[in-house]
């Protein structure tokens, strides 16, 4: 599930003689190994910070301009189906964009349940791939895998491969709150049964660049609306390019627009 970290100096090294024997899956052993690796990768210097940074213009939509530790966010788009549909409607792009600033400032992040991550696109968004753990196929034990990962990183983006049961969702939300991590869920068609602290919904995303039978897709414009609890009860909307012509996220509001006035 994880790529093994580089070998530490001083550890015993002995080259195997011939190919290694076939390894059978053992769920308790594999989950225990994952938990140990997560604990080793958990940062110490930033673990006490109350907030995780978010890159603009998404920061203008969040109550603190940042991600508050211990919270759960749900990102949904018009598709809400398979990985292909979620990628096309922009929900996965927004979830990755939420990860970019935290990753770029030294936080460990993880992506669970997404098959076929575009590494180049993630890098252009600002994600530090050296601090990103990817578990594309967590299998039927996806909730257990996600819980183990939450123990060791600051931010987890989860694309549930199977419809989550309410009890599963509540346990993961409680785990993120207890460990002071941020859980970003990109639910499938079944949705997310536990009300999140923040909900980010994406309006129709339209690509720009292609003409009538010619040209290339260059950027995608979308409207992101955030609603939530308590201080985030008042909805906020913002238009952005994701990706922009450079592959990064950019403001799509017209020049001179004042963010404090709300959506145009």
Walk me through this protein's architecture.
- With 264 residues, the chain is of the alpha/beta class.
- It has a single domain (50-259), classed as Rossmann fold, CATH 3.40.50.
- It is 25% helix and 20% strand.
- The chain is built from six helices and twelve strands.
- The protein has helices at residues 27-41, 83-89, 91-104, 119-125, 142-150, 166-179, and strands at residues 51-53, 66-68, 72-76, 109-112, 132-135, 155-158, 182-185, 198-202, 206-208, 219-228, 236-241, 250-251.
- Strands 3, 4, 5, 6, 7, 8, 9, 10, 11 and 12 form a ten-stranded mixed beta sheet that branches. A two-stranded antiparallel sheet has the order 1-2.
- α5 packs parallel to α6.
- The chain is globular and about 55 Å long.
- Mean pLDDT is 81; it is low at 1-13, 44-48 and 255-264.
Secondary structure elements and pairings:
Layout: H1 27-41, E1 51-53, E2 66-68, E3 72-76, H2 83-89, H3 91-104, E4 109-112, H4 119-125, E5 132-135, H5 142-150, E6 155-158, H6 166-179, E7 182-185, E8 198-202, E9 206-208, E10 219-228, E11 236-241, E12 250-251
Parallel strand pairs: 3-7, 3-8, 4-5, 4-6, 6-7
Antiparallel strand pairs: 1-2, 8-10, 9-10, 10-11, 11-12
Give a quick precis of the structure.
By secondary structure, the chain is α/β, with parallel strands linked by helices. The chain has helices at 27-41, 83-89, 91-104, 119-125, 142-150, 166-179, and strands at residues 51-53, 66-68, 72-76, 109-112, 132-135, 155-158, 182-185, 198-202, 206-208, 219-228, 236-241, 250-251. The protein is globular and about 55 Å long.
């Amino acid at each position: 599930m994880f790529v093994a970290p580089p070998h530490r100096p001083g550890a015993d090294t002995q080259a195997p003689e011939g190919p290694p024997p076939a390894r059978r899956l053992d769920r308790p052993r594999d989950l225990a190994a994952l938990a140990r690796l997560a604990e080793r990768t958990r940062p110490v210097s930033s673990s006490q910070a109350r907030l995780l940074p978010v890159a603009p213009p998404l920061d203008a939509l969040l109550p603190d301009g940042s991600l508050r530790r211990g919270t759960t966010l749900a990102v949904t788009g018009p598709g809400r189906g398979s990985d292909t549909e979620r990628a096309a409607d922009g929900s996965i792009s927004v979830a990755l964009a939420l990860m970019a600033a935290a990753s770029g400032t030294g936080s460990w992040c993880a992506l669970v349940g997404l098959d076929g991550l575009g590494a180049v696109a993630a890098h252009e968004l600002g994600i530090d791939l050296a601090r990103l753990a990817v578990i594309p196929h967590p299998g039927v034990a996806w909730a257990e895998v996600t819980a183990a990962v939450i123990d060791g990183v600051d931010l987890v983006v989860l694309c549930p491969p199977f419809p989550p049961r309410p009890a599963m969702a509540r346990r993961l939300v409680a785990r993120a709150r207890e460990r002071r991590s941020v859980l970003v869920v990109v639910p499938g068609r079944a949705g997310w049964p536990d009300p999140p602290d923040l909900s980010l919904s994406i309006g129709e995303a339209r690509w720009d660049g292609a003409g009538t039978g010619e040209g290339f897709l260059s950027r995608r414009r979308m409207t992101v609306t955030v609603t939530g609890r308590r201080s985030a009860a008042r909805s906020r909307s913002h238009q952005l390019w994701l990706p922009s012509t450079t592959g990064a996220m950019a403001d799509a509001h017209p020049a001179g627009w004042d963010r404090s006035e709300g959506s145009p």
